[in-house]
Every structure is written in C-alpha cells, then in structure tokens.
Amino acid sequence: MTDKASGLVQGTLDMLILRTLALEPMHGYGVALRIEQISRGVFRVNPGSLFPAFRRLERAGWIKPEWRPTENNRRAKYYTLTERGRKQLKAETEEWGRQIAAITRIMEIAD
Amino acid sequence: MSIWRNLTSGLRTLFHKEEVEQEMDEELRGFLDAAVKEKMRSGVSQDEALRAARLEMGSVDAVKEEIRDAGWESTLETLWQDLRYGARQLRRNPGFTAVAVLTLALGIGANTAIFSVVDAVLLRPLPFRDPAKLVQLFETESAPGTYPLTGADYLDWQEQNQTLEGASLFAWGESFNASGAGEPEQAYVVRTQANFFPLLGVEPLVGRTFLAGEDQAGRNSVAILSYGFWQQHLGGRRDAVGKDLDLDDEKYAVVGVMPAWFGVLGGADIWIPMDMSRKNLGLRGTHQYRAIGRLKRGVPVAQARAELQTIAQRLEKQYPDTNSKVGAAVVPLKDELVGGSQAELLIMLGAVGLVLLIACVNVANLSLVRASGRHREIAVRRAIGAGRGRVVRQLLTESVLLSLLGAAFGLLIGWGCLQLLASAETLPIPRANPITLNGAVLAFTLGVGLLVGVLVGLAPALQVSQLRLNEELKTTVQAVLGASGRRRLLRDALVAGEIAISLALLIGAGLLLRSFAKLREVDIGIHPQGVLTAQIALPPKKYTTLEQGIAFFDQLVDGLKGAPGVEAAAVGSKLPLRGGSNGYITIEGEESSKFNNILVENNEVTADYFRVFGIPFLKGRNFAPQDFQDAAELARKVVTMMQSGKMQASPDLRLVAVINQTMARQFWRNQDPLGKRFQLWGMLQVTVIGVVGDVKEWGIRERVIPQAYYPLHFALAPPVGALSIVVKGAVGTKGLPATVRNQVRSLDSSLAVFKVLPMQEVISQSMSDTSYQSLLLSSFALLALLLTAVGIYGVMAYTVTQRTHEIGIRLALGAYPREILGLVLRQGAQLTLAGVALGVAGALVLTRFMASLLFGILPRDPFTFVVVATGLAAVALLASYIPARRATKVDPMVALRYE
C-alpha cells in the first residue's frame, strides 16, 4: 500500500479526495493522478485505498457518483462534491490548519 | 440522513449484487485504462504501460475485496458465508459434531438448571409488593440466636414503634381435622393477623383476603385456602368460596383462595384469622409467634432494630419476671427466607461452572485436533487472499455455531432437570419464587453459549494464526516427530488443566459425601429400627376436658400395646430431631444466674416412650402409674388457677421429671441428681426421679441441650396440640400404620392420623439438605470425571496416531512393545501428575468456601484428598493406557508406509 509506505496520515486521504474533487468532478484515476502530481509524487494512492474511500465518502453523502461517457465511447464513474461534502471539507480544512499550527509550534521549540 | 443512505446503499449491495459487482469491475477497468493511457503519454509502449499499471494496481481481486469490506453489509455477508461454511463443516464430521454438541449440552444444561434455581431464589426479588422493605421480627434471649415472639410483647411493639408502616403477627401451623365429604382430612392451619396478606402485598386468586377487624373474637370464623388444598379437596371449584368448611368441628366461611405460588413462610393448607385480643395471645414469657413488618419509607433496618430494642428494654424494666434479657431482632425478610441457602447455591453454581469449563476444554481439544487436520486448507485460504483475521473469524463462527447448538440441547436438558426438581417433594431450597426457565435464564443460556463458543474457538484460532504458511504448503508428510512442540504444549496444558478442575470438583463432592457419612454415624441417642411415628391432634371443641384427653390416650396406648406385632407403644409431645417446646427452669438452692431462668427442653411422655426408642435409663426410675395420676391432678389445679387468673408459685404444685444426662451434668455436676428439685415456669416444684441417655432433639448437627421429660397427663389439659404416637414393631414397621389408624378409628372415627413415618425416614429427612447437596455435587463431579477421562483418552489417542510413523520406526529398529507402552504411558503420566498437583492446590483454596456445608471433617480432610487424587490418577492412567496398548500393536510395515 503505497499511501502507507509514503506516510499518508490516517484519515487524511478522505480530506485529500474531497479537496481534489472541489476543483472539478473527476473519475478515480483522475483523483489519484491529481493527488500524486500536486504532492509532487510524495503521495501515491493505490486503488485498494482509493475506492474504499470513495465508498465511505459516498455513504456519508459528501460525494456523489455519476456515470459519464468518455471520449472512447465508454463510460466512467465521475465523483462530484456535494453541498454537504463542501461543508465537511471546510470543517476538515480548518481542523487540519489548527493541528498543523499546533504541531509546528511544538516542533519549533528551541532546544 | 447519512444513516439512511448507508442502509439503502448497503441493502442495494446485498440484493443487487451482480449490478454492483459489474459497476465495480467497470470502474476498475476504467482506472487501469486511464493509467495505461497516462503512461503511454510519457512515451512507453502499450505493453510496457499495461505491465507497469497492473503492477501498480496489484491483485484486482484483493482491491475488490477491500472495496467490498468498506461497507457494513460485507460483515453481514461474511457472517452468513461463514455460517453456511461452518454448518457444512459440521455436517461433514458428524462424529465430531455429535460428541462436541453433546458435551457442551451437558455442561450448558447443568448450568441452565442451577442458574434458574439461583435466579428464582437469590436474584429475583421476593414476589411481594416492595419486598425490600419487608422484615421479620424476633425476640432475643441471653443465649445466641433468635426466638419466637410473645403475643403481649408484640402488641406493645406494634403500639409503640414509629419505624414500621405495619406489622403482622402469625402463628406456626397447627393440625386441624378438616371435614368435608368422606374421610376426615388433616389440614395444616396457620393463624394470622388480619393485615397479613395486605402487608405482604399479595392478592388472592379467588375471593378476598381477611378484612380489617376479622381478627377479633366472634368475627374470625373465616378461612382462606391454599391453592393445593383447594384443588385437592374442593376440586378447584370457584363456588367453594362462600361455602362453609369444618375445622375441628367449627364452621369457617371460605372467603378466598391464594395463588399456587404463595407458600412462603412455611406454607399452609388454610389460613384463619388469629384472635388478636391481649387475653387470647397468652402470657408474657411464652414465646410462640412469628411476625413480619414493613419498614416506613426511608427507614433502614438498623433504625427499626434500634427502636424495637429500645422498646424491648423498656418492657424488660416493666416486666422483669418474664422479660429479663429479652431483646428484639429485625431481619430483612429475604435474608431470613433465603440467606441460609446462598452459600450452598453459589457453590453449586461454581461447581457446574467448572463442569462447563471441562466440557469447553474437551471440545477445544477436539477442535484443536481437527484444526491440525485443516492446516493445509487454511494455508491455501490464506494464500489466495484471506487475511488472518478473516480465518480466525471463520473458525470462531464455526465454534459459536457449535456451542449454540449445544446451548439449544442444553436448554432441553436444563428443562428436564427442572421438571425433576419440581417433582421432588421435599426440596431443601426456599421456594419464594417459582423456579422457571424465564427470560433471564434464557438470556443466561444464550450468553453462556456465546461465551463457550468463543472460548472453544480461541485455541484453534490461536494456533492457526501462528501458522507458517510456506512450511504448511510445502510439507505434505507429517513431521516424523509428531506435532510441533508448541501445538502439543497447548493441548497438554488444556488436558492438565482439565484434570486439575475435575480433581477439585471430585474433592468437593468427596468432602460432602464424607460429611453425609459422618452425619449418618452420629449417635442420635435412639434406636430407630422398627419404630413408626404418627401425629394426632384432639379437636378442643370435642375434647373439652382433661379427663377426655386422658381417657383417649390411655385407651390408645393400651390398645396399641395389645395389638399384634407391637412390642411397645407410647405417646409424647416431641419426636427426636423434630424440635418442639421448651420452658424456663430455676434450680432450687442455687443463686448464680447459671442456674436461674435456664431454657430446657420439655417432653411430656407416657412411660414406654423410653422403651420404644431404646433410650437407656442411667439412674433412678421410670414414671409409675401414680406419677401420671399426680400429673393429672396438677394439670387440673393449674387449669383452675388460670381460670381464676391467680397464677403463683405454691409448694403443693408438684411434678416429677426424668432428665437427660446433659441436664444432670450441667446442673448437678458432682452430685446425685436424684431427688434434686427445680422450679418450672416459676411456679411448679419439680423433683428429679430418673436420668436417661441424651437424645438429639433439634437436629443431627445440633448440640444436645438439657431436657426434662414429664408425665404426659400434665400436658393433656385442653387445648392439646398435636402429639406423637410412637410404636415399636416386633418385626419392622410393616403393618404398623394400619394398626395405628385402626386403633384411632376405633376410638374416634372423626380423627385423622397424619405424618405417619418410620423413625428412619424422620432421620433421613433431617439430613435431606446434606444428602441432596452431596447427590448434586457428586453428579457434577462424576460428569466432570467422565468428561476428563474422555478428554485424556482423546488426546492420547491422537498423539498415538500422530506418532504412528515414529513408533513404526522404533519397532522396526527393535524396540520392545513394552518400551512403546512405557513411552506413551509416560506422556500420560506426566500430564496426570501435573493436573493432579494443580488440582490439589486449587482444591485447597476452593474447599474453604464450602466449610459451612461440611460436617465432622475439615475442608482439607487429608483422607478425601488422597483417596480422590489417587482415584482420579488411576482413571487418567487407564484412559491413556488404552491408546498406549494400541500403539504397541502398530505394524511397522504399515506404519512406515503411512502417508
């Protein structure tokens, strides 16, 4: 599991997915690729983690799946952030900011 | 909202599986396609890109499994799969399944039965309104213990107390001749204050209970029937209420019937109101009543006790003659009713718990053996993607399925046990609540079933989770030296533990059996062989004078003596071991309080009472005819005095007494007791004319206390309570009941003879608690022994099978069968030794808790420990001998070809 190997903090994957989907509706690979690109390769999300996360978020009502046709006449499942998902993202972002600030303060203690 | 979505989405996954799976496949394929396209964009060939993408993705099946696991429905689905798989596994091994289910059912069944008794007696509240506030009231004396109340004291308590919301006086049962159609019936009648039933808060099944004021003379000719009496004698007809019933030739109007379960506080056939007038309740100083009370809201028992104690002290000052040293005691009703059986029941519950533990160990061992055979299956399952947790869950599901089957059959067994219990007539268990398989018991059984399932499944699951996959898949032949060390250790530990538990149980049972034997050896002071006892009561309405009573009993005893097959016959007011009345005496010429107002037993008897029971005369003489005439004369004087209301000591109130050895020793240690005198009830002058051997009056476990025998005629002034007829047969008691009944009928056909029992039976009944306990605990211990033997046998047999190859090699290389036998037996002996050592240590700790149930031996009785430990070791060795024998019969050629 790549995400564990690269030290993705437990529970942050959901937040990263929500943040990515906040840009535009995307399919699974799109989300994985976007996270990898933006993190400059630090986080690589494999399907074994990504899709269960989609199921969780879907059940929580934060994202909504939708089948859309793709260019080569197939269809792909796109995920859209819902209104509730947007709220959740906002809450998680704030919480994350607080935690980061706190951790930073602790780590900056001068020896 | 999200719960709803969660639910619907989960249900969709469950019920539209194919659609959901298809979408999942499609999505994953899309992911792969997109990944390939992305990689090709950076310039690699399509094949290369596909390979890389697949590598990154890993096993598609594993990914799908993870996606499925994300929802709750997968847990449900897995459980269902596991259950079906488990059921298939169990069906495939009918032998294993049958043995395991039967073992667990026995264990769980015994637990269900005992728990339902514990639930009824200890856990459920008494079936009364607000039962925690109910108390029983007693008086206390200088001697330890609690004593019955005097009516006069009770009335004062009732008037003066502030802590009780109410109190109710009731008497001990009296025998009445109840007549309806046909034979006169003996009915056990309890008199109560009118508020008795409302105070308890019980409603009648039919009709009403007593009304306020019905406990006054003239209004108290009403009766309430017990359910049993109503059914048996009045056919359970509702119109019985409102009709009249004759009790000792007096008419009582039946006003109600109590429900079947109501039989607490000694039970009764009929309740009638007591005349609560001060005059009727008797003299201060005659302790003869029982009473219950209901605490006021918020009043603790201690406060009520303190208050009644204060009142008692006031009465002590006021009436020093009768109330010196008389105090008050208040005991919660539940403690009084069931307190005594608590230790016993908890011990029994502990014992069945241990039996169940042994059953679990056995089944766990069986499952371990079976799991060893399934290592390859499990290794394959894990290799193709089942996680460790998944496999453990599968095994636990199987064992829980097994144990729930066991619980279902156990419930049947428990139900059967309860039917047996219900049919037992004299059960030494207080039955305030009916013993039933109610919701609590069912929940208990289900809980035990689940717990057992997890316990039993834990061992194989533990083993499997430590499986080294590669090795399991590689080895096709069992390792030459049998199971790997760790696996064997677990099984051995289980068997040793099983031996230990079983030993502790057997020692417990052994101690009880020894106590029972000791009880049987106790010298009661009589020869019960060939003695028949019976009870009779003369109705005071019909036998109104002393002379009538004397005439009746004189004729009865004479008639019985002359009857064929009768060696001796007598009448007495007491039977050995059954207890009875006592009175205060003061030794003449002694000032010390050791000789002042001492309680001694009374027994009024005819002359042959001693001969019937074989009670030896140690000194002096028996009662002569003149003594009976004098006693009758004295009774006449006392009656006259009571009627005139002038009770005082007088030198011409004389009586003679035969005393027991303990009394002689206690009061006239170094003197000749013959001719010595004492005062009875502060007014009669009694002269000792003889000394007889001691007889246990209050129970086998009780000490002998001082006892005086008086001529029967002294006790025949009406009203006469129930008296005992005792007859010694020339050859056994056969035919004696008919003789006694015929004699009584020839004198008065309206009289009923009741409680017709051989004296041997009276003795057995007085030991019924210990005999019942030892029977119960012995059954549990034997069950444990059986299970343990099966357990040892199973493990040894399995070991031998595992080592067949090795044994074959040894035999081929020239080992003697004897050496092989030794090899296997040694292993069995080691297990046994470890188990016995552990068991003895455990028993030393556990048996301390049963000290109160034992009689005549210590909880660490060395004899019991040694005998039981040796016996168990022998059984264990025998159980390992059989497979060991089989090992010597191994054919080397066959063994070497094995696998």
Poorly predicted residue ranges of chain B? 477-483
Instruction: State the total count of DSSP E strands of chain A.
Output: 3
Mean pLDDT of chain A: 84
Largest beta-sheet details of chain A: 3 strands, antiparallel
Q: Radius of gyration of chain A over alpha carbons?
A: 16 Å
- Most residues in contact, chain pair and counts: A-B, 24 and 27 residues
How would you describe this protein?
The complex is a heterodimer of chains A (111) and B (899). Chain A is α+β, with helices and mostly antiparallel strands and 111 residues long. Chain A has one domain (2-107): Orthogonal Bundle (Arc Repressor Mutant, subunit A), CATH 1.10.10.10. In chain A, 59% of the residues lie in helices and 14% in strands. In chain A, a hairpin with a 5-residue loop joins strand 2 (63-69) and strand 3. The longest helix of chain A has 25 residues, at 83-107. Chain B is of the alpha+beta class. Chain B has four domains: 2-70, no CATH class; 142-325, no CATH class; 343-520 and 768-897, no CATH class; 543-749, no CATH class. In chain B, the strands form four sheets. Chain B has a six-stranded mixed barrel with strand order 3-4-9-6-8-7. In chain B, strands 14-15-20-17-19-18 form a six-stranded mixed beta barrel. The relative contact order of chain B is 0.10. The interface between A and B is medium-sized, with 24 and 27 residues.
Essential attributes:
heterodimer, A: 111 residues, alpha+beta, Arc Repressor Mutant, subunit A, 5 helices, elongated, disordered N terminus, B: 899 residues, 4 domains, 6-stranded mixed β-barrel, 29 helices, 54% helix, 15% strand
Secondary structure topology:
The complex is a heterodimer of chains A (111) and B (899).
Chain A: H1 2-5, H2 12-23, E1 26-27, H3 28-38, H4 47-60, E2 63-69, E3 75-81, H5 83-107
Antiparallel strand pairs in A: 1-3, 2-3
Chain B: H1 2-15, H2 17-41, H3 46-57, H4 60-69, H5 72-92, H6 94-123, E1 134-140, H7 151-160, E2 164-171, E3 174-179, E4 185-192, H8 196-200, E5 206-207, E6 222-225, H9 227-234, E7 244-247, E8 250-257, E9 270-273, E10 289-295, H10 301-318, H11 320-323, E11 327-332, H12 333-338, H13 342-373, H14 375-383, H15 388-423, H16 439-465, H17 469-474, H18 485-521, E12 531-536, H19 546-562, E13 566-572, E14 582-587, E15 598-605, H20 609-613, E16 617-620, H21 625-644, E17 654-660, H22 661-667, E18 677-680, E19 684-692, E20 707-711, E21 723-729, H23 736-747, E22 753-758, H24 759-766, H25 768-802, H26 804-812, H27 817-846, H28 862-888, H29 892-897
Parallel strand pairs in B: 4-9, 6-8, 15-20, 17-19
Antiparallel strand pairs in B: 1-10, 1-11, 2-10, 3-4, 3-7, 5-8, 6-9, 7-8, 12-21, 12-22, 13-21, 14-15, 14-18, 16-19, 17-20, 18-19
